[in-house]
Amino acid sequence: MADFRGVFLLGVVLFVACSVTGVRGTKFDDVIQASWASDHLIYDGELLKLKLDNFSGAGFASKNKYLYGKATAEVKLVEGDSAGTVTAFYMASDGVNHNEFDYEFLGNTTGEPYLVQTNIYVNGIGNKEQRMDLWFDPTADFHAYSILWNPRQVVFLVDDTPIRVYANHEESGVVFPRDQPMGVYSSIWNADDWATQGGRVKTDWSHAPFVATYREVRIDGCGWGAGEELAAAVKRCSESEWGKEGRYWWKKKDMEALSVHQSHQLLWARAKHLVYDYCADTARFPVPPAECKA
Ligand SMILES: *[C@@H]1O[C@H](CO)[C@@H](O)[C@H](O)[C@H]1NC(C)=O
Ligand SMILES: *[C@@H]1O[C@H](CO)[C@@H](O)[C@H](O)[C@H]1NC(C)=O
Predict the structure, then answer these.
(1) Which of 54, 190, 206, when mutated, tests ligand 1's pocket best, judged by the most ligand atoms within 8 Å of its CB?
(2) Tens digits of per-residue pLDDT, 202-248?
(3) Could you tell me the domains of the chain?
(4) Distance 250 CA to ligand 2 centre (A)
(5) For the GH16 domain, which residue ranges apply (predicted)?
(6) How, if at all, do strands 32-36 and 115-121 pair?
(7) Is 100 one of the annotated active-site residues of the chain?
(8) If you count DSSP H runs as helices and E runs as strands, how many of each does the chain have, helices first?
(9) Averaged pLDDT for residues 18-36
(10) Who's near 16: CB < 8 A, 6+ residues apart?
């Protein structure tokens, strides 16, 4: 009898211990892990927080790499004074000729609007910045920021509204990012040399810590399995027919381009909220880059 009770109590203790770690990790631990300053990455109930103070910023990275798919972070950006800070959410491959799809949220002084800068690197070359403000206050609540990547297009979506499309124009000689598995990353850091009002407004450390809060990180992609040859993964993830497997929904025929409704949303977002587009920056690019002409 006494032995039984001991086993029962041990069971309860284990159950409680597992539940506690379960609450801490479940949603996030399956998908991501700390990649920079794990002491500045804080689990708070169902939420994950990245903290920037005068000692360090913080970041996380996906556990897997992906070849095509959709990555989404539901984030509430730094409240109040966020001037000088940048919170980034991006996908990137490794190496000098890497590909990268970036969201960079540029903080501002209290009450002034955040700017969302997007950029795209293809074969190691970036310089494709666009900047937008938002149609809501991104510090007041959680919003979903997504990157969709398939062999025909890269789409940046905010709450499922497309704000930018980088379409495949290989037929016009424009290189399209493919064949390099990408990780999914997020971080917060001090960038007061350039981020806010061109670097004129510096980070006010008396307002630290600056905290970006995540409610969810979802990645639905073709994972590059451990031990799999890269060539085999590229073939499996890119050469299969559109959505043939069903589970690769991001490659279905209707994901090749925006729907009519999405095209209207994109036009609306850009007409109302675009504040900078490298394609229109003739001082910087007297000859428009090829992808801008395509
Ligand atoms: C960081 O900020 C804290 C609190 O304001 C302060 O006590 C500390 O001296 C600062 N450390 C550095 C390295 O600036
Ligand atoms: C910050 O606010 C100023 C004033 O409204 C605005 O000009 C600027 O674009 C905003 N964003 C950044 C990142 O500087």
Answers:
(1) 54
(2) 999 999 999 999 999 999 999 998 789 999 999 889 876 655 556 78
(3) 32-293 (2.60.120.200)
(4) 35
(5) 2-214
(6) unpaired
(7) yes
(8) 4, 15
(9) 70
(10) none
